[in-house]
């Protein structure tokens, strides 16, 4: 009995200590900065104010927030569309080759992402590879450039964040109990129905995890919209960076960061509740199906 | 059968998408032109320059060591955290869980500056240790989220059975939970390693002159244009990775025999 | 007892030696690729001092870090124009001992005694440059381009490149309207914003890092470019031309400075003096193609650089040009309009 508690307590203690020191404390400090005033000599002055939050309720900032969320959501969706079939097919492959497939996904990402982004320019630019291929296939008449466009930004974000979608998806799909799928088929469900009612709900944790690991970083990412998109729009990542570095208005930057975090925590909580309810319902239905099958 | 073929075709298509820019990087590392994105002739000059550029190579080695260590640490702590959050009920559990998500959302610049202030307050010297702590903290939530997703589908009965048979909590973790979540743990390690190798903003603030890392060098070199010697370095690192992977493959095959 | 005494004496001698001589190390915090490796190697060879070179990619990031570290950790930093002003006022820079700089007289008076450091007590110019107008001959005849307002010409439609640096871009707009790049008047800044807003539909990209590539690959038809970038771009693509608009341009200068908490101030002075040598300054210019503040070096530049109007502009070229200086609280106004410009369609 004592041994169990020791391990449990030690684990919790270690994790709590690390997160407390290096995550909670700095973020608490950040929270504090949001209600202080910007300083002349130092970065912040110990004067309490809520003005920073008030200043964020202006149309420019709300527009920046909206643009960023729209971009991140679309990229996440594209990543999901590209990544799910990929992860699914790999998970269905022979057990011995699966790790290699995964490794092959990750290896490109050990090349610095900035360099790969610049390599994308060579593909997307005027008279670049994509243009040449399209020309060759007859889809276009004259060379085109895909640079400095929304499309280029989507390609860049998807490219950079794909493994963060594929890995959690794979992990989830891999765990899938094939017997459930077989049971559904036996009960007369077509492939599509089996997928919709069995596979999809059961792999929902993977989808949620993957989506979060793509959505959240793509919100904060600023260099891809800059390099591939031409920096014509301002996104929340640029805004926060600007406040901290260029405008030297730490309280405003910290407040923006906090609002972002709050919004996303709300989103995550909503997802969480929804997926738990769906999972509970599906589990209930599966238990019922297996029960009737067994009985 | 058709679906399987179609699926495989999609897999190869995605791989092509992922590797095409790498191919571009490698090809352009032989490009004689320093700044142009057009091809102007084959040369090995850049590789020669790379061998002579010791600061760049040093930075690359530094990055590799920090990435490996921080990924390992992040995986250890992250998997532990995931297990704690999944299995145990304790006061402050919700706070811990939320702080994991807050970390994933945290913009790099915020994390970088707040950690720097923290290190300064503790009078720590900026360098390898501070960078290690920062990168571990960076990768930790990614590991936790990935492992938690796997644990969500975990069959509790297995652990119950083991416990009934007299296994301690630690033993249950070591022999049942860890092996069954190994794919998720490995995936988490890979994600953390990637994050560390790529991180620029956090590294900028928390490292010191004694420990320069590759992404910083690259990010500031990019200001004057990505030159082929960076492409040469990337090509070399890519080549080394492939060699290591093939080596590992050969070793696993040997062991099986 | 004897042993103890010997140990104490040895310790004292050891610490005495360690304190009296500066270790042969120099921590340089600079832009990447801003001092040629050959120069650093020569410095080490001649003085025996090892150079540890760390980099930053923007003045703002460098400023934040140095300020948080209270000027400790690095021996040399290279801030641009108005950052010297800020760091000086924040007490982050150490006074430079002119007596230790034997080559100081080589410097061009045009670049000295700027408002951000009137007596040059805290900074020594290293490299300076400007942001001019580059155009592609295939689109317009460069001889017909003489003003920033020419960017509105229909030939440039949809192919303009502006800088992603707010001071630089607002700088050219202010110049186009006849104001100073260091304007603190809200009315003038607003007018500059409206000028830029009118131009925005034609703007293809806001860039700082890949300007020359964009011009070389002909992704853009005309726009802002640093003179050093222009030199390189014109070399790779002969269709490009660099123009000095008649209203003037924003100028910048990067200077060597010593943070107040530097641990190797002696070595730092040696390094600065080394860089002030004409033969060394010449190497730097020929590597990076920006303008040198070193008159002695200017005289011995190779023909390509000496004759290039990009690297070596004439006085007439720079008429009406100004160095970008600090604007104090007005920076908030600039930032506000910058955000509005970026979020506008």
Automatic annotation (TrEMBL), chain A:
<dbReference type="InterPro" id="IPR000515">
    <property type="entry name" value="MetI-like"/>
</dbReference>
<feature type="domain" description="ABC transmembrane type-1">
    <location>
        <begin position="65"/>
        <end position="271"/>
    </location>
</feature>
<keyword id="KW-1003">Cell membrane</keyword>
<dbReference type="GO" id="GO:0005886">
    <property type="term" value="C:plasma membrane"/>
</dbReference>
<keyword id="KW-0472">Membrane</keyword>
<comment type="similarity">
    <text>Belongs to the binding-protein-dependent transport system permease family. CysTW subfamily.</text>
</comment>
<dbReference type="GO" id="GO:0055085">
    <property type="term" value="P:transmembrane transport"/>
</dbReference>
<feature type="transmembrane region" description="Helical">
    <location>
        <begin position="100"/>
        <end position="124"/>
    </location>
</feature>
<keyword id="KW-1133">Transmembrane helix</keyword>
<feature type="transmembrane region" description="Helical">
    <location>
        <begin position="64"/>
        <end position="88"/>
    </location>
</feature>
<dbReference type="InterPro" id="IPR035906">
    <property type="entry name" value="MetI-like_sf"/>
</dbReference>
<feature type="transmembrane region" description="Helical">
    <location>
        <begin position="252"/>
        <end position="274"/>
    </location>
</feature>
<feature type="transmembrane region" description="Helical">
    <location>
        <begin position="151"/>
        <end position="173"/>
    </location>
</feature>
<feature type="transmembrane region" description="Helical">
    <location>
        <begin position="194"/>
        <end position="216"/>
    </location>
</feature>
<protein>
    <submittedName>
        <fullName>Polyamine ABC transporter, permease protein</fullName>
    </submittedName>
</protein>
Automatic annotation (TrEMBL), chain B:
<protein>
    <recommendedName>
        <fullName>Spermidine/putrescine transport system permease protein PotC</fullName>
    </recommendedName>
</protein>
<keyword id="KW-1003">Cell membrane</keyword>
<comment type="similarity">
    <text>Belongs to the binding-protein-dependent transport system permease family. CysTW subfamily.</text>
</comment>
<feature type="transmembrane region" description="Helical">
    <location>
        <begin position="230"/>
        <end position="251"/>
    </location>
</feature>
<feature type="transmembrane region" description="Helical">
    <location>
        <begin position="128"/>
        <end position="151"/>
    </location>
</feature>
<dbReference type="InterPro" id="IPR000515">
    <property type="entry name" value="MetI-like"/>
</dbReference>
<feature type="transmembrane region" description="Helical">
    <location>
        <begin position="64"/>
        <end position="88"/>
    </location>
</feature>
<dbReference type="Pfam" id="PF00528">
    <property type="entry name" value="BPD_transp_1"/>
</dbReference>
<feature type="transmembrane region" description="Helical">
    <location>
        <begin position="172"/>
        <end position="191"/>
    </location>
</feature>
<keyword id="KW-0997">Cell inner membrane</keyword>
<keyword id="KW-0472">Membrane</keyword>
<dbReference type="InterPro" id="IPR035906">
    <property type="entry name" value="MetI-like_sf"/>
</dbReference>
<keyword id="KW-0813">Transport</keyword>
<feature type="transmembrane region" description="Helical">
    <location>
        <begin position="100"/>
        <end position="122"/>
    </location>
</feature>
<keyword id="KW-0812">Transmembrane</keyword>
From TrEMBL, chain C:
<keyword id="KW-0732">Signal</keyword>
<dbReference type="GO" id="GO:0042597">
    <property type="term" value="C:periplasmic space"/>
</dbReference>
<dbReference type="GO" id="GO:0015846">
    <property type="term" value="P:polyamine transport"/>
</dbReference>
<protein>
    <submittedName>
        <fullName>Polyamine ABC transporter, periplasmic polyamine-binding protein</fullName>
    </submittedName>
</protein>
<dbReference type="InterPro" id="IPR006059">
    <property type="entry name" value="SBP"/>
</dbReference>
<feature type="signal peptide">
    <location>
        <begin position="1"/>
        <end position="20"/>
    </location>
</feature>
<feature type="binding site">
    <location>
        <position position="82"/>
    </location>
    <ligand>
        <name>spermidine</name>
    </ligand>
</feature>
<keyword id="KW-0813">Transport</keyword>
<dbReference type="InterPro" id="IPR001188">
    <property type="entry name" value="Sperm_putr-bd"/>
</dbReference>
<keyword id="KW-0574">Periplasm</keyword>
<dbReference type="GO" id="GO:0019808">
    <property type="term" value="F:polyamine binding"/>
</dbReference>
<feature type="binding site">
    <location>
        <position position="33"/>
    </location>
    <ligand>
        <name>spermidine</name>
    </ligand>
</feature>
<dbReference type="Pfam" id="PF13416">
    <property type="entry name" value="SBP_bac_8"/>
</dbReference>
């Amino acid at each position: 009995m004592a041994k169990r508690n020791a391990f449990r307590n030690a684990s919790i203690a270690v994790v709590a200590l690390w997160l407390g020191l290096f995550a909670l404390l700095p973020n608490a400090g950040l929270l504090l900065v949001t209600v202080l005033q910007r300083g002349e000599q130092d970065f912040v002055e110990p004067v309490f104010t809520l003005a920073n939050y008030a200043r964020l309720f202006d149309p420019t900032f709300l527009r920046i927030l909206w643009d960023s969320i729209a971009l991140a959501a679309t990229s996440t969706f594209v990543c999901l569309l590209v990544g799910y079939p990929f992860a699914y097919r790999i998970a269905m492959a022979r057990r011995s080759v699966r790790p290699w497939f995964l490794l092959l996904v990750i290896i490109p990402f050990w090349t610095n992402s900035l360099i790969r982004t610049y390599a994308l320019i060579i593909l997307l630019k005027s008279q670049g590879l994509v243009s040449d291929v399209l020309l060759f296939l007859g889809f276009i008449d004259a060379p085109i450039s895909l640079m400095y466009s929304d499309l280029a930004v989507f390609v860049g974000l998807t490219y950079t964040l794909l493994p963060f979608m594929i890995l959690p998806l794979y992990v989830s799909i891999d765990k899938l109990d094939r017997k459930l799928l077989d049971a559904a088929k036996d009960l007369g469900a077509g492939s599509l129905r089996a997928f919709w009612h069995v596979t999809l709900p059961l792999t929902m944790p993977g989808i949620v995890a993957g989506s979060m690991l793509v959505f959240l970083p793509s919100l904060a990412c600023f260099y891809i919209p800059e390099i591939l998109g031409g920096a014509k729009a301002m996104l929340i990542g640029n805004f926060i960076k600007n406040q901290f570095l260029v405008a030297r208005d730490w309280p405003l930057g910290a407040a923006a960061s906090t609002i972002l975090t709050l919004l996303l925590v709300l989103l995550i909580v909503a997802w969480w509740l929804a997926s738990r309810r769906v999972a509970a319902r599906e589990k209930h239905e599966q238990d019922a199906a297996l029960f009737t099958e067994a009985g | 059968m058709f679906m399987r073929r179609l699926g495989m075709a999609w897999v190869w298509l995605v791989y092509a998408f992922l590797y095409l820019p790498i191919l571009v990087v490698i090809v352009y590392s032989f490009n004689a032109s320093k700044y142009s994105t057009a091809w102007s002739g084959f040369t090995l000059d850049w590789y020669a320059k790379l061998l002579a550029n010791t600061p760049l190579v040093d930075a690359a080695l530094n990055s590799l060591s920090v990435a490996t260590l921080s990924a390992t640490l992040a995986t250890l702590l992250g998997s532990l955290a995931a297990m704690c959050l999944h299995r145990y009920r304790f006061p402050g559990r919700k706070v811990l869980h939320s702080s994991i998500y807050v970390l994933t959302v945290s913009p790099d610049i915020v994390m970088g500056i707040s950690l720097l202030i923290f290190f300064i307050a503790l009078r720590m010297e900026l360098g390898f240790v501070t960078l290690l702590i920062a990168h571990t903290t960076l990768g930790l939530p990614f590991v936790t989220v990935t492992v938690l997703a796997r644990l969500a589908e975990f069959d509790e009965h297995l652990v119950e059975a083991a416990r009934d048979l007299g296994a301690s909590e630690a033993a249950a973790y070591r022999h049942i939970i860890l092996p069954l979540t190994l794919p998720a743990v490995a995936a988490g390690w890979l994600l953390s390693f990637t994050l560390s190798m790529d991180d620029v903003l956090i590294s900028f603030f928390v490292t010191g002159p004694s420990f320069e890392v590759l992404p910083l060098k690259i990010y500031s070199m990019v200001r004057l244009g990505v030159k082929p010697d960076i492409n040469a370095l990337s090509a070399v690192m890519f080549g080394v990775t492939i060699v290591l992977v093939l080596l590992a493959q050969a070793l696993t095959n040997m062991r099986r025999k | 007892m004897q042993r103890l005494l010997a140990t104490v004496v040895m310790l004292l001698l050891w610490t005495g030696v360690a304190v009296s001589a500066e270790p042969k190390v120099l921590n340089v915090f600079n832009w990447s690729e801003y001092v040629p490796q050959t120069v650093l190697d020569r410095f080490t060879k001649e003085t025996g001092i090892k150079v540890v070179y760390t980099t930053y990619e923007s003045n703002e990031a460098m400023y934040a870090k140095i300020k948080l570290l209270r000027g400790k950790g690095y021996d040399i930093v290279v801030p641009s124009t108005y950052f010297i002003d800020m760091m000086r006022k924040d007490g982050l820079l150490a006074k430079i001992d002119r007596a230790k700089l034997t080559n100081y007289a080589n410097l061009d008076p045009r670049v000295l005694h700027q408002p951000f450091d009137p007596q040059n007590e805290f900074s020594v110019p290293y490299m300076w440059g400007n942001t001019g107008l580059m155009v592609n001959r295939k689109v317009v005849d460069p001889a017909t381009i003489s003003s920033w307002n020419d960017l509105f010409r229909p030939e440039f439609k949809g192919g303009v490149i502006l800088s992603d640096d707010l001071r630089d871009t607002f700088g050219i707009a202010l110049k186009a309207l006849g104001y100073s790049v260091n304007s603190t008047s809200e009315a003038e800044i607003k007018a500059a914003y409206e000028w830029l807003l009118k131009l925005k539909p034609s703007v293809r990209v806001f860039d700082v890092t890949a300007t020359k590539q964009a011009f070389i690959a002909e992704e853009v038809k005309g726009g802002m470019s640093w003179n050093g970038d222009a030199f390189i771009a014109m070399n790779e693509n002969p269709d490009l031309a660099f123009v000095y608009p008649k209203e003037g341009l924003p100028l910048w200068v990067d200077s060597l400075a010593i943070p107040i908490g530097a641990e190797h101030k002696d070595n730092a002075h040696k390094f600065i003096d080394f860089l002030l040598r004409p033969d060394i300054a010449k190497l730097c210019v020929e590597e990076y193609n920006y303008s040198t503040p070193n008159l002695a070096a200017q005289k011995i530049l190779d023909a390509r650089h000496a004759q290039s109007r990009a690297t070596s502009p004439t006085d007439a070229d720079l008429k009406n040009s100004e160095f970008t200086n600090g604007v104090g609280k007005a920076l908030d106004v600039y930032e506000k309009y910058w955000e509005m410009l970026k979020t506008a369609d």
